[in-house]
Amino acid sequence: MSIIDKAGTFEFAGHTVKRMGYGAMQLAGPGVFGPPRDPKAAEQVLRAAIEAGINHIDTSDFYGPHVTNQIIRKALHPYPDDLLIVTKIAARRDETGAWLPAMSPAELTRAVHDNLRNLGLDCLEVVNFRSMHGIHGPAEGSIAEPLSVLADLKKQGLIRHLGLSNVTPTQIREGMGITDIVCVQNQYNLAHRHDDAMIDELAKQNIAYVPFFPLGGFSPLQSQILSDIATRLELTPMQVALAWLLQRSPNILLIPGTSSVAHLQENIAASGVALSPETVAELEGVWEAAQNAPAVDHS
């Protein structure tokens, strides 16, 4: 058994995927904008991920824009039979690299065709609708109109499965009333656990939950708690954070991103880390630190 197999698998969109996947966002240039400094190195990371056993890659055509999908195609096409490529749409970049909503029917349709062309595919296996009601986090607002556009493209055979990203529980319920939802992708980690109940509910329905930013938004205190535990276990903080996510729920699929083969191997090594109940209890302190932090006065 390879180390990545120790994390197990999950039935996702008709595929049996390894729970340790790869997120391609960091293959683009600084700020996820423009080309990488070393395109050959970016291709090498992708090939190393496949060689290590990863069969779930998360991407988007608005990374770059177009850059990461073109690198994926150049590095991996024709794709391995068991590889699941998941993309997301509903945002765009302006000339400065800002992230802007792109949720109109024309923009959504164009995004699907851009993904198909740049990935070299006839059908997109999974498309996540990335709600842009909130740019930096979920915000309420109906997703019925844009998701109905994607459901129609699914009926046309351009998309096989649909997922949701950056969404609230209300939006998930609304989405499930329109089409089958195979995954939800939100920010979630040791320090940001607002989706705890959502994860448990999705697990009951065998729906994948794909957290992003596994170390995003930690306060200095939270980082120190994690770092102290990692040092004692002779692991990196990222490895501990990833191992905790794998143990949190069986429907959690990881997509840590990196532009370095060495960091890729470090992340994959987290697949073989088993945290003791005592360590898991200790890691609750990261979330507790967030709950007990004094309120910030924005007035």
Q: How many E strands?
A: 11
How large, in whole angstroms, is the Cα Rg? 19 Å
The low-confidence parts are 295-299
* CA distance, first residue to last residue: 56 Å
Strand order in the sheet with the most strands? 3-4-5-8-9-10-11
Large-scale geometry: globular
Number of helices: 10
Q: Roughly what percent helix?
A: 25-40%
Description:
It contains ten helices and eleven strands. The strands form three sheets. It has a seven-stranded parallel β-sheet with strand order 3-4-5-8-9-10-11, with helices on one face. The protein has a two-stranded antiparallel ribbon with strand order 1-2. The protein is globular. The chain is an alpha/beta fold and 299 residues long. 39% of the residues lie in helices and 15% in strands. It has helices at 39-51, 67-76, 105-119, 144-155, 169-176, 196-204, 220-233, 237-248, 261-269, 277-292, and strands at residues 9-12, 15-18, 22-23, 56-58, 84-89, 91-93, 99-101, 124-130, 159-165, 181-185, 208-209.
Summarize the structure.
By secondary structure, the chain is α/β, with parallel strands linked by helices. The protein has helices at 39-51, 67-76, 105-119, 144-155, 169-176, 196-204, 220-233, 237-248, 261-269, 277-292; strands spanning 9-12, 15-18, 22-23, 56-58, 84-89, 91-93, 99-101, 124-130, 159-165, 181-185, 208-209.
Keywords:
299 residues; alpha/beta; 7-stranded parallel sheet; two-stranded antiparallel ribbon; globular
Write the layout of secondary structure elements.
Blueprint: E1 9-12, E2 15-18, E3 22-23, H1 39-51, E4 56-58, H2 67-76, E5 84-89, E6 91-93, E7 99-101, H3 105-119, E8 124-130, H4 144-155, E9 159-165, H5 169-176, E10 181-185, H6 196-204, E11 208-209, H7 220-233, H8 237-248, H9 261-269, H10 277-292
Parallel strand pairs: 3-4, 4-5, 5-8, 8-9, 9-10, 10-11
Antiparallel strand pairs: 1-2, 6-7
Helix pairs in contact: 1-2, 7-8, 7-10
